[in-house]
Design goal:
The complex is a heterodimer.
Chain A (H helix, E strand, L loop, with lengths): L10 H5 L2 H8 L3 E9 L5 H17 L4 E6 L5 H14 L4 E5 L17 E3 L18 H20 L7
Parallel strand pairs in A: 2-3, 3-4
Helix pairs in contact in A: 2-5, 3-4
Chain B lengths: L5 E12 L2 E4 L4 E2 L4 E4 L3 H8 L3 E9 L7 E2 L1 E6 L2 E5 L5 E7 L1 E9 L13 E2 H4 L13 E9 L7 H22 L9 E9 L4 E8 L9 E3 L11 E2 L8 E3 L1 H5 L3 E3 L2
Parallel strand pairs in B: 1-9, 2-4, 10-12
Antiparallel strand pairs in B: 1-13, 3-4, 5-12, 6-11, 7-10, 8-9, 15-16, 15-18
The chains are: A alpha/beta, B alpha+beta.
Chain lengths: 162, 255
């Protein structure tokens, strides 16, 4: 069991992942793929892998990116950097993260305002498997938020596609 | 006039619902919804995987959750490829039953890193989520006791997942022969391009720090451990997968 049993994404979760279902079934968006990125132990590695993921997004000319994580605490370093690297490259970004009361971001940056809190309990890590893992409603909120941001980017002439 | 969708590849997932799981003389599953489970396989697994001291297999009936559980390492769907590679072709999967892998070592140390979920199952397992069984589902508990300290080591944990996967493979091999028309649900998915629509990418950060905090990809079977590669061994570097590869079980959660 990894960091936070209640946010843990089991193999069954991946098999019927609500985030994938929501984004892939929305006819307004063209889901290009899913990038899976790990969480190294050392800080240099943490900053490296998220940056490489952001470069992939840029190379694919993504109009928007949704970042998701099932960890919290020290893996926030990875997550916040990844969100920042995507944002810095001019791509609208939202995401999903367990914050609650006990897991507020341990690092901050200007691109984190679009991140949805997936905490569904009393704000603590309940250690109950499945309780705080991403559900469809949260995935929809992240996508709606991203659509707004993509529209704003387009209106501002900052979108890559027409 | 919007541009037409471009279909790249098709994946059909056929589900076979299991109504009844009980102990029997052999591990057997039928397309008609019956499953029998036997503990005969355990002896052979213990010989093959030296870092495992003991394995127990139990059938947990729907609602019968007022019982002790060791920390949950994973909850695994029973799925198999019938045609094609992961992400295309045909997959058979079972509904109504899921495998729960739990772990402890001979010193009583739970197989976890930071947070653990041992305790009364009715309190520790939140039902009806995407990643957990529903109210009416059976759970097959595959409970491993590792040799001392091995529940904290990558090699030990991987042996636990592999041993569980060998057990699941027995059913997968039978499911490959199920007649597709007798499925209880059929879902068709396409990897597709929607020209002219906003291009969106999902970046998923997954576990990659150690023994109980690992993610495996590219298993030989959907949600499989055998033949898979650890994201730690791949340097935790980003890997791109297609939506159909993802939903066909290209990930085995090792956390």
């Amino acid at each position: 069991m990894g960091i936070g049993p209640s946010t843990k994404e089991t193999s069954l979760h991946h098999f019927r992942d609500p985030l994938l279902d929501v984004v892939s079934s929305d006819e307004d968006v063209d889901l290009m793929g899913i990038v899976l990125v790990g969480t190294p132990e050392d800080n240099v590695g943490k900053l490296l892998v998220g940056t490489r993921a952001a470069v992939i997004a840029e190379s694919m000319r993504a109009d928007g990116v949704i970042c998701s994580t099932d960890g919290w605490g020290n893996s926030d370093v990875d997550f916040c950097n990844m969100v920042e690297q995507v944002g810095k490259r001019g791509m609208p970004v939202t995401g999903l993260h367990f914050s609650g009361e006990c897991a507020k971001f341990v690092v901050l940056n200007e691109y984190l305002e679009g991140i949805i809190d997936i905490c569904k309990g009393d704000g603590s890590e309940s250690a109950n498997v499945g309780e705080n893992a991403v559900n469809a409603q949260e995935a929809r909120r992240a996508l709606v938020h991203l659509k707004v941001k993509m529209k704003q980017a387009e209106a501002a002439g900052k979108s890559w596609s027409k | 006039m919007p541009d037409k969708e471009i279909l790249l590849r098709r994946l059909v997932i056929k589900a076979f619902h299991i109504n009844e799981v009980e102990f029997g003389e052999e591990n057997k599953v039928t397309a008609g919804g019956k499953m029998t489970v036997s503990k005969d396989i355990i002896e052979g697994l213990l010989k093959k995987y030296p870092l495992i001291n003991k394995i127990d297999i139990q059938i947990i009936k729907p609602g019968d959750h007022d019982r002790w559980t060791n920390t949950m390492m994973d909850i695994i769907p029973v799925s198999t490829k019938v045609l094609g590679e992961i992400g295309e072709g045909i997959t058979h999967t079972l509904t109504g039953v899921y495998v729960m892998l739990t772990g402890i070592d001979t010193n009583g140390k739970q197989t976890h890193e930071f947070g653990s979920s041992e305790g009364n199952l009715k309190d520790k397992l939140f039902l009806n989520r995407a990643g957990t069984p529903g109210d009416d589902d059976y759970i097959i508990s595959f409970d491993i006791t590792f040799e001392a300290g091995q529940g904290q080591e990558r090699v030990g944990c991987t042996q636990g997942h592999d041993a569980c996967d060998e057990f699941i493979q027995i059913f997968r091999n039978q499911m490959k022969k199920f007649h597709g028309d007798s499925c209880t649900e059929r879902h068709t998915y396409y990897d597709k391009i929607r020209p002219g629509k906003k291009r969106v990418l999902i970046l998923k950060q997954t576990a990659g720090q150690g023994a109980m905090y690992d993610t495996h990809l590219f298993g030989a079977e959907p949600s499989g451990s055998l033949g898979s590669r650890s994201i730690i061994d791949m340097g935790n570097m980003p890997v791109v997968v297609s939506p159909n590869e993802y939903r066909d079980g290209i990930i085995r959660s090792m956390q």
